[in-house]
Each structure stands twice: as structure tokens, then as C-alpha cells.
């Protein structure tokens, strides 16, 4: 643990010598200045946790104003550094003034060595704590930048993605209804957000609804709202998602999961551009831009009588098909690098890199779970990493039936066995800690160790 660096500023060379002799064996670095005008330059050149500062530098002047001036200069430019003021005059008012201006403490000449050391150690610990908080805040700020980047921007430069974004830019300025299709995890919601960001409605809200998560009994209340007393739990008036999204964009995700009889109610609201809250007879006009998304083949559902053809025509004036990750070429590595930075910051492993074999493995894999699966794979590899280079063996990618996959892919049981062995290696002799790391009980871990003949 660092002991701290100290800068002593006093025009009395005898005081400087005495303090230097006392403090040098106790702290990492002790530097002395007899001229306070050199303080700014010295603090800019070197790192200090404490400035031990004399209050008076001019002969015959005992007001302490010089010390107060330099205290202000230090705290303005280096607020994390502790300042302990030292003077031969026990002026309580001056001490109080200095403390109010940011001094950490105040000592008198002649000093008691034991008390002086205790005061200095306490002040240095305070400075180290401030530095840690500053570091954590900067890291959190940087992490937020990294994490939030995918909320504002779509990452990649493949021709397939560029084609999609070209369409997005064309249709975003209009109010036409858009249907976004594609496999799970391809980023359909990000496309919807990009459409809203580029639209004339960008200053208003984008309201998202996961249609697969809305129960049939709550569908009308969730989308159209209700009035107080309309049903047992309706204790107050509540606006539905259509009203909340008024003047903005309504994003209906997984619309293919909506049951057939509720599709008629949704179609009526879209066609009439008005909704009626449950328990009310008063229609409420709404002005929304509708964007829907699904991973299902809606024309096939229409043929099977599971999706209304008139609703399909209403929602897909423009259809945007988001390509799967496996068709986006080098975007796999671009996204992998993004997620690597994201989770390296999150788990404080900022020097991590992918070696060439790991990159090849990621490029060759089929990615049935698309971007979402890639993100989870990167996070898992970062968590379990033991050095700064992520290798191919650090990625436990699942086999995919019917698709060409990386021949190095491990079977599910082999993946599980490897994770258990890694946890046991990282916690030698401590099965409970290994179980905690894996998120399972100790008994479950013992059972699996017996199953895989580990240990």
C-alpha cells in the first residue's frame, strides 16, 4: 500500500531539514521548497498526496495571508491533495478560516513528532481516498460512454449493414409505417431507435412495447389505457402506450406473438388513429409513427390463419430485413472489439486483447444467437480470463445442428466440465468459493465433479 508523497513548503531551511529528516523514513517521497512560487510547477510535474504548507513567508509578517493564498491555489488546481498548514502562531480564527477554505488540518510550531506523524498519515489517507474516488468516477464515466455507445449508434461497416442504414435514412424522415424483420439478436430494436433518431419526431418520445410480454388480459389497458374504477385494480386513470407515444414513435416489438383476436383491436387503433380507454366512451386521438418488429415470417402466419392479412398490409408499408450476424463478415470482429472494451472496463481488465486464433474462431462460428450471443460470449470470456490475451479456447461456443461450425466447438457437457475445472483452479481447495463463482450450490458442484470425475 502506498505511504504517500509529501511536498514541504517553508522559507525556514532549518524547519525544512528537520521535517525532511523526520519524514523521509516514513513516506515514499519527501520534497522540500523554500520558495512558494515554485509550488504550481512542482505539483504539475510530480504527484503528491500532501502539501505541508507554512502560513507566513515574509519576515515580520504574521497574518497568514500568504498561506491562505497558496492554500486556495492548491485546492483550486488539485482538489484531491490534502493541505496541512503549519505556523508558529496559535490563532484559532485563522485556523478556522483555513479549514473552511479546504485545509485538512492545522499544526503549530514547535510540533510534537508523534502527533505530527499521525496528522500527516491521516491527511494522506484522505488524499488517497479522494484519488480513488476520482479514478472510479472517471472509469464509470468512461464505461458509461462505452456502454451507451450502442444505444446511439449501430456498430459495423459491412455492405449488408450499410445497405440497411441507407434505407433507414430514406424512410426515417417520412411517417410511413415500418416493419423490421430478422432473427433474434440481430439488433432490430437498434434499427427502430435509429429510425426515431433520424425522424422529424426525434424530440418526442419513442415508446417501446414487447408484445410477447403483454398478457391478453392486460393488452387493452397497456396499449389503450383505463379510467379509475374500470376494473378491480384500476385505482386511478392511466394513459396507455398509444397516448404516451403521441407525437412520437410507437415501437411494437415481437408483434408476431400477438394473438389473433387482439390483432383486430390493434388494427382498429392504427386505422382510426384514436384509442378509447377501458371504462370510457370518449375516444382519444393519437398521432404516432408506428414501427413494428418480429423474428417470425408473417406471410407464412397469414397463410396459416394466425396473422391478419389486413394488419400485415397496414404495418409493413416499408419492410427492413436485418441481416444475421454471420452474413456481416468483419463486423463480427468490430462488434467483438466493442464488447471486449465494454466488459474490460466493467470487470477492470482493461488490457485484454484477442489473438489471431480467437478472431478466426469468432469469424467462422455461425452465431445462431447473433449479436446477443456474441456479447454474452465476450462477457463470459472476459470474466474467466486469466491473462491479457484471449485465445480460441477461451470461447465456449455451442454446436449448432444443421450448420457448419468451428470444428473446435465444445459439446455442452465439455463446456460445463471446463467451466467447473476453471473455477476449481482459480479457487484451489475451496469448493464453496468455486460454487459461488459458478452460481450453483456446493452440493450441486460436488455432484457435477463426481459426474465428470474431477478432483
Structure report:
- The chain has 455 residues and is an alpha/beta fold.
- It has three domains: 5-136, Rossmann fold (3-Layer(aba) Sandwich), CATH 3.40.50.2300; 159-323, Rossmann fold, CATH 3.40.50; 340-452, Helicase, Ruva Protein, domain 3 (Orthogonal Bundle), CATH 1.10.8.60.
- Helix content is 47%, strand content 14%.
- The chain has helices at 13-23, 39-45, 65-77, 92-100, 113-152, 159-172, 188-197, 219-224, 241-244, 260-272, 298-303, 309-315, 331-346, 356-364, 370-384, 412-426, 431-438, 442-452; strands spanning 5-9, 29-33, 50-54, 82-87, 105-108, 178-181, 206-210, 225-226, 238-239, 249-253, 274-276, 283-285, 289-294, 318-321, 353-354, 389-390.
- The chain has a five-stranded parallel sheet, sandwiched between helices. A five-stranded parallel sheet has the order 7-10-13-6-14.
- α5 packs antiparallel against α13 (331-346), α6 packs across α7 (188-197) and α17 crosses α18 (442-452).
- The model is unreliable at 402-410 (pLDDT under 50).
**Coarse morphology:** elongated
Looking at CATH, the homologous superfamily of the largest domain is P-loop containing nucleotide triphosphate hydrolases
Q: How many angstroms does the end-to-end distance come to?
A: 37 Å
Overall pLDDT: 86
Secondary-structure class:
alpha/beta
Strand order of the largest sheet: 2-1-3-4-5
CATH topology of the largest domain: Rossmann fold
CATH domain class of the largest domain: Alpha Beta
Q: What low-confidence regions span 5 or more consecutive residues with pLDDT below 50?
A: 402-410
The portion of residues forming beta strands comes to: 5-15%
How many domains comprise the coordinates?
A: 3
Q: Based on DSSP secondary structure assignment, what is the total number of beta strands?
A: 16
Helicity level, as a percent range?
40-55%
Largest sheet: 5 strands, parallel
Amino acid at each position: 500500500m502506498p505511504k504517500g508523497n509529501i511536498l514541504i513548503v517553508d522559507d525556514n531551511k532549518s524547519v525544512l531539514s528537520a521535517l525532511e529528516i523526520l519524514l523521509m523514513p516514513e513516506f515514499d517521497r519527501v520534497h522540500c521548497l523554500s520558495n512558494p512560487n515554485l509550488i504550481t510547477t512542482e505539483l504539475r510535474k510530480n504527484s503528491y498526496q500532501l502539501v505541508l504548507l507554512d502560513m507566513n513567508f515574509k519576515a515580520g509578517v504574521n497574518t497568514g495571508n500568504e498561506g491562505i493564498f497558496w492554500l486556495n491555489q492548491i485546492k483550486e488546481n488539485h482538489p484531491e491533495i490534502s493541505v496541512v498548514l503549519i505556523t508558529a502562531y496559535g490563532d484559532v480564527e485563522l485556523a478556522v478560516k483555513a479549514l473552511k477554505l479546504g485545509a485538512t488540518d492545522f499544526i503549530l510550531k514547535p510540533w510534537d513528532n508523534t502527533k505530527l506523524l499521525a496528522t500527516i498519515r491521516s491527511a494522506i489517507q484522505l488524499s488517497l481516498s479522494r484519488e480513488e474516488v476520482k479514478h472510479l468516477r472517471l472509469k464509470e464515466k468512461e464505461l458509461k460512454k462505452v456502454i451507451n455507445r450502442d444505444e446511439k449508434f449501430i456498430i459495423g461497416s459491412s455492405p449488408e449493414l450499410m445497405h440497411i442504414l441507407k434505407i433507414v435514412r430514406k424512410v426515417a424522415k417520412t411517417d410511413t409505417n415500418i416493419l423490421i424483420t430478422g432473427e433474434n439478436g440481430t439488433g432490430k430494436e437498434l434499427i427502430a431507435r435509429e429510425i426515431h433518431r433520424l425522424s422529424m419526431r426525434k424530440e418526442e418520445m419513442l415508446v417501446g412495447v414487447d408484445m410477447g410480454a403483454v398478457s391478453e388480459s392486460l393488452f387493452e389497458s397497456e396499449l389503450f389505457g383505463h379510467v379509475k374504477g374500470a376494473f378491480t385494480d384500476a385505482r386511478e386513470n392511466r394513459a396507455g402506450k398509444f397516448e404516451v407515444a403521441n407525437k412520437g414513435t410507437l415501437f411494437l416489438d415481437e408483434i408476431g406473438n400477438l394473438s389473433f383476436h387482439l390483432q383486430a383491436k390493434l388494427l382498429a387503433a392504427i386505422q382510426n388513429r384514436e384509442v378509447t380507454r377501458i371504462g370510457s366512451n370518449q375516444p382519444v386521438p393519437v398521432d404516432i409513427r408506428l414501427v413494428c418488429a418480429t423474428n417470425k415470417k408473417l406471410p407464412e402466419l397469414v397463410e396459416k390463419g394466425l396473422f391478419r392479412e389486413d394488419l400485415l398490409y397496414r404495418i409493413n408499408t416499408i419492410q427492413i430485413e436485418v441481416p444475421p450476424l454471420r452474413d456481416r463478415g468483419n463486423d463480427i470482429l468490430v462488434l467483438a472489439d466493442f464488447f471486449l472494451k465494454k466488459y474490460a472496463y466493467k470487470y477492470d481488465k482493461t488490457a485484454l486483447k484477442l489473438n489471431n486464433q480467437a478472431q478466426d474462431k469468432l469469424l467462422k462460428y455461425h452465431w445462431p444467437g447473433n449479436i446477443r450471443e456474441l456479447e454474452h460470449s465476450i462477457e463470459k470470456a472476459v470474466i474467466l480470463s486469466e491473462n491479457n490475451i484471449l485465445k480460441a479456447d477461451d470461447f465456449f461456443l455451442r454446436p449448432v445442428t444443421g450448420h457448419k461450425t468451428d470444428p473446435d466447438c465444445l459439446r455442452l457437457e465439455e463446456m460445463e466440465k471446463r467451466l467447473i475445472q476453471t473455477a476449481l483452479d482459480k479457487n484451489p481447495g475451496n469448493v464453496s468459493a468455486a460454487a459461488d463463482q459458478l452460481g450453483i450450490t456446493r452440493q450441486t458442484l460436488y455432484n457435477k465433479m463426481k459426474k465428470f470425475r474431477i478432483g
